Amino acid sequence: MLTPISKAADFLCISVSAYISKCIVFHDESAFSHIDGLLGLLGFALPFITFRLTRVYQPFRYESAINNVMRALAAWLVAQLVLAAISHGYPGSELRGHWLLWWTVIAACALIVGRCAIHVLPSLIRSWRFAPMRVAIVAACSANDDLLGRIAPQVRRVFIPEVIYDPYLSFNTTIGIIPAVKSLAKLKEIVRAEKLREIWIVNSLFQPISVEDLLQAFCDDFVNIRVLPILEVGASTTSVVDDFRGIPILNVMATPERNWETVPKEIFDRVFAFFVLVSISPILIAIAIAIKLSSPGSILFRQHRKGVNGDVFSIYKFRTMYQGADKPGTVVQARKGDARVTKVGRFLRSTSLDELPQFLNVLKGEMSVVGPRPHAVEHDEYYKNVVQHYMFRYRIKPGITGWAQVNGFRGETAEIRMMEARVKFDLYYIQHWSFWMDMRIIFLTLANGFVGRSAY
C-alpha cells in the first residue's frame, strides 16, 4: 500500500524542489536554456533508477526510519552526482551548477520530511481509523513471565487485553487489573459476554496450549484466532507468516483483512450492481408481471441469511413458490418436480433469474457480486455440525455467484458430500482471493450461462 504513496511523495518532493531552486537561481527566464530543461527531465528520471538499485522502495515494516531515510538520501545524491557530471560537458554549466546544488539541498530536506512522514503513516492510520483492538490472550504460565510486558513492545499499543486464559493456573486470579481464568468454559463465557472478536495465542515451547481445543470451543463463533510467534524482544521477524496492523502473527483461523487490496472489490460491487439493475430493469419488470399473473402473493421473496461474520440480513429473490408453501420456521430445499414451485418459478430457478434482485443486497453492501453463496439460516444450523469448517464461509461477504457455482456446485445439495465439496471450493476462494479471480468467476458465470442441472 505504501510503495505507490512513497513514489508519489518522492516525485513531488523532487519536482517541487527543482522548481523552487530554478526560481532562486534563474532570475531571468531567458537564461534557462533548452539544455537545462532536458537535463532537468533527466534529473527526474535518474533518482528512480538509483532508488530502485538501492532498494529504497522495499517494504520497510521492520526497518528504522533513519535507515530508510539514509538509503533514500544516498540514492538521491548519487543521482545528482551523475547529473552534475553529465551537465559539466554542456555550455552554461556554472549557472546550472548553482541550480543543481540548490536542487540537491532542498530536495534532500524534503525527502527527509516526506519519508519520515510516510514511515509513521501506518501508525497514524491505525490511531485515526481503528480503535484499540480488544483481545483475549491465551498463554501458559502467564502469571510468572511478565506476559504483557513482553508483548507490549511488539504490538505497538493497538490492543487492549480483556482476559487471559491460562489452563495451568491453580485458581482464577488477576494479572495487573486483567482477569486471568483457568477454565476454557469461563474464557468462552467472557468472550461472548464482552463480544470479543480476537483471541491471541502466546504458546510456550514447554507448556503448550492445545489449539485444537480452542478451535473446537469457538467453531461456531466468529472469533479470529491468531498466534503470536515472537515473544522475546529483538527476536528475528523474518520468518513470520503475516502481520496484523504491524504486529507479526501466524493466523490459525481469522477473517481475511479488509485492507486497501479489497477497495477495488468494494467499488466494483457497487458500480457493477448499479449498472446491472439499470440495464436489466425492463427484464425485472417483465418478471415481476409474470410472477404476479401466475399466482397470488408478493413479487419478491425475503429470507434471512447470514452475511460476513454471521450478521443476519434479508436476502431478496423473486418469489418462485406458491404463497405459504413453507411451514414457518422450516426450510426445505427445492427438489426436482417440487410441487411447491410455480411454473414461472421453475423457469426462473433453472435460469437463476430469481437471483437478480440480490443486486439490491450488493448495492446495500450486504453481499458481493462474487463470494460463497449464503444458505438459509436453518440450513446453517444443520450443516455447521456435520461439515467441517462450514461456518468459515461467512468470514467474507456472501456472493451472487462464486467459485463453487462455476465449478458445478449450484442448486440442491441432497447429499452431505455435495455440501462438503461446495465448502471446499468456498474455502479455496477465501484463501486465494484476488480481484482478477473475481473477474474470472464473473466471466465463467456469463460464459457457462445461468442454467444449472441441480437448480429446481
Automatic annotation (TrEMBL):
Keywords, alphabetical: Membrane, Transferase, Transmembrane, Transmembrane helix
Main location: membrane
Residue ranges of every copy of the Bacterial sugar transferase domain listed in the record: 265-448
Membrane-spanning residues: 38-57, 69-88, 100-125, 271-291
Pfam short name (any one): Bac_transf
Gene Ontology MF term list: undecaprenyl-phosphate glucose phosphotransferase activity
Transferase found in the keyword field: yes
Protein name according to UniProt: Undecaprenyl-phosphate glucose phosphotransferase
Organism: Paraburkholderia sabiae
Lineage: Bacteria, Pseudomonadati, Pseudomonadota, Betaproteobacteria, Burkholderiales
